[in-house]
Amino acid sequence: MTLTLTGVGYRYAGARRPALLDIDLELPDGVVVGLAGASEAGKTTLCLVASGLAPRTVGGQIRGRITLDGEEVDAWPMHRLSQRIGIGFQNPATQLSQVASTVFEEVAFGPMNLAIERDEVVTRTWEALTTLRIDGLAERDPQRLSGGQQQLVAMAGLLAMRPAHLVLDEPTAQLDPAGTRLVADAIDRLARDGASILVAEQKTDLLAAVASSVIVLAEGRVVLQGATAQVLADPRLPELGVPERSAVRLERAASAAGVGRDRLAGALHD
Amino acid sequence: MAGSDHLTADRGVPAFLGRPGPTAFHRLNPLTKATLATVTAVAAVVLGGLLGPIGLVVAAIIVPAGVARVLRRLMRTALLLALPIGVSAFLINLFFFPGGEQVLVRIGPITATAEGLAFALEILVRILAISGAVTLFYLTTRPADLVLDLERRGVSPRIAFVANASVQTVPAMVDRAAQITSAQRARGLDTEGSVWRRLRGVVPIVGPVIMGSIAEVEERTMALEARGFTRPGRRTLLWAPSDTVAEAVTRWGLVLALLAVIVVRLTGIWR
């Protein structure tokens, strides 16, 4: 199953300039595509467009083609699209339903809305909680969790819907390194299970770990696109507002200090 | 993170969902408790005089609260809830009751009369009855349980969601207000001292609380859409509160009793 965007442009209602221009993107099964760029480069907008929320819920004008397995999705209602494409946002508090008394019910909220059979909802919910290793939180009140825990709960809610395509807008923005690793593991596992994932992230180390290709946006256009290693090694990243990988920064610092690459590798190995 | 060593994903419906309440009153179906609260509140208004509403308060609020072991909390919460409106209504009726003749006390141009006192007490008892009935319901019922029960009975998931979210939003906004208050105080905002100082401190707190909530609406809407909330039709329920024939009969009995009281009062059979 492939999610394809061809020549997609998008302009928010009332805006004079388009937020996205001529975006071509293909998300086949099992592929993780990273999305990077400075603030207001269009990352969130591309996530909204790819998930179908823009313009269905957000409003605005779109052009170009979006297809799922070759089928145009223009006329699909959001609840139909949401069974195929999931989206996670960076603010965990707004992703919680606010009506669930326990984490378990919060994670089950999406599958319940889709009227999936009860036993299947329970199975999916436990599976999503276990995948993110938050099954110990199942009985807790989601409103009383830390921001990082809420982000994992929101992510589990997405996983429980088992979408074939997943769009994640800075899913680790509020997570500590351990939480970030859990999300990276979950992304990796989902991709191995066949899901295609578009992940917008400023953490290039995470992109290096999970993405097979990376797109860099600037002013709504694709300015860099290619294999992850190639894009993340591009010297133009800092001027495009994308932080370099920590390994690259470390190498540069070592070089400036007169420490050679071999010596650095030896020191790290020790 | 609260992880677990379990690697088997599916463990069935968790036991904590719909865990029975600690007392027999807690374990009543939420709709039964909601019916009792509504009937009590309406009957307290419809019943005339003092004895009727006082008897109602004892029978429908104090005794059940004792059974539910929440009497102390109920008294405190219900009084706090009723205090502002109760005190003002009591004073207005005590001092400004039209046509009162038996003067009790005169303070300058205003006069407290015996008729005003009797009427003020009637109003106060009714306000306390309403506040007590609502408090008893909320102290013994999770709003989410009532919503689940209504949804099972065929109420639209959207209406149920709006009802539930409205109740759940209150503690979330209280938390947000506390965070913003702390943040503003850390930046030098004075929220203590004279009434005027406190009032001046309200604006920089209320503004961000309301504007922040409004700003989040769009993202919340998108998150709900993305989780299939707009799908038409019924949704799956993981569990629903138990109900019995006896409780159904009790509910109808309460409603019929209320209708009877209304009819009796309207026709003037009992004054």
What's the helix and strand layout?
The complex is a heterodimer of chains A (270) and B (271).
Chain A: E1 3-11, E2 20-27, E3 32-37, H1 43-51, H2 53-56, E4 61-68, E5 71-72, H3 78-81, E6 85-88, H4 92-95, H5 103-113, H6 118-131, H7 147-160, E7 165-169, H8 177-192, E8 196-200, H9 204-210, E9 213-218, E10 221-227, H10 228-232, H11 246-256, H12 261-269
Helix pairs in contact in A: 5-6, 5-7, 6-7
Chain B: H1 30-46, H2 51-67, H3 71-96, E1 103-107, E2 110-113, H4 114-140, H5 143-152, H6 157-186, H7 195-226, H8 245-267
Antiparallel strand pairs in B: 1-2
Helix pairs in contact in B: 1-2, 1-4, 1-8, 2-4, 3-4, 5-6, 6-7
Can you write the helix and strand succession of chain B as a string?
HHHEEHHHHH
**Strand order of the biggest β-sheet of chain B:** 1-2
What percent strand of chain A?
A: 15-25%
- What is the share of helical residues of chain A? 40-55%
Structural class of chain B: mainly alpha
Largest sheet of chain B: 2 strands, antiparallel
| Terminus-to-terminus distance of chain A | 45 Å
Low-confidence stretches of chain B: 1-8
Low-confidence stretches of chain A: none
Neighbour order of strands in the largest sheet of chain A? 6-7-8-3-9-10
What is the helical fraction of chain B, as a range of percent?
Answer: 55-70%
Counting copies of identical and different chains, the oligomeric state is: heterodimer
Please, how many helices of chain B? Answer: 8
3D structure, described in words:
The complex is a heterodimer of chains A (270) and B (271). Chain A is of the alpha/beta class and 270 residues long. Chain A contains twelve helices and ten strands. A six-stranded mixed β-sheet of chain A has the order 6-7-8-3-9-10, sandwiched between helices. Chain A has a four-stranded antiparallel β-sheet with strand order 2-1-4-5, with helices on one face. In chain A, a hairpin with an 8-residue loop joins β1 (3-11) and β2 (20-27). The longest helix of chain A has 16 residues, at 177-192. Chain A is globular, with a radius of gyration of 19 Å. Chain B has helices spanning 30-46, 51-67, 71-96, 114-140, 143-152, 157-186, 195-226, 245-267; strands spanning 103-107, 110-113. The N and C termini of chain B lie far apart (64 Å). Chain B is flat, with a radius of gyration of 24 Å. In chain B, strands 1-2 form a two-stranded antiparallel sheet. Chain B is mainly α. Chain B is 67% helix and 3% strand. At the A-B interface, α3, α4, α5, α6 and α7 of A face α6 and α7 of B.
